[in-house]
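General statements about sequence and structure are easier to judge against a single worked case. When preparing material for the folding task, we compiled for one chain both its residues and its backbone structure tokens. The amino acid sequence and the backbone structure tokens for this protein are reproduced below:
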Amino acid sequence: MLERMNEFFAARISEYDEHMLHTIDGLQDAYTETARLIPKNTAVLLDLGCGTGLELEYIFKLAPNIRVTGIDLTQAMLDKLSEKFSGKQIDLICASYLDYDFGSEVYDAAVSVETMHHWSYNEKLALYTNLFKALKSGGRYIECDYMVLTQQEQDRWSDENCKLRTAQGIPEGEFCHYDIPFTVSNQINLFLQVGFARAEAVWSHNNTAIITAEKI
């Protein structure tokens, strides 16, 4: 049974941090690596799907004065993030990052952690186009996410998602929680397609991978 995205996460807010840190093998190391990959000269950072701010705990250790814009669909997540980082420079937006206008050449870097595996090809293509525009020249996007090894796996998840949506009468465009992970190579091709000059996988552990994409 598919659940609406914001309702799914709001219902699990009390256990979310524990699940992410101690259930997903290797994710603590992934948070550390994601923070390390943010360029040292980054002053303004965009965090897509920031949730409760788990990645920010690691980022602020390395860059305590960085200014962050965080966007998430679930207000309960943002409320918890605010409690954690009351003294930091954080602007929070409760909205869908899929169609939010981030402006042009605003951010030095952007990150996302364990959020992009919920979206289709067309949704990602539109988002990454918008993200590319929002990054300054020389900007870097760091994506840490659940990815699969083969096209067959990707197709299987996507097909099952379509079947469930059809069975439940869920219209296209309504945000529901379901994993539709892509392969690393397909993710890289998306970044190159929207204009990033370079994109490469720089870290992986089981099905968690980190890709960096550079705008010149």
About this structure: Residues 17 and 23 are 10 Å apart (CA to CA).
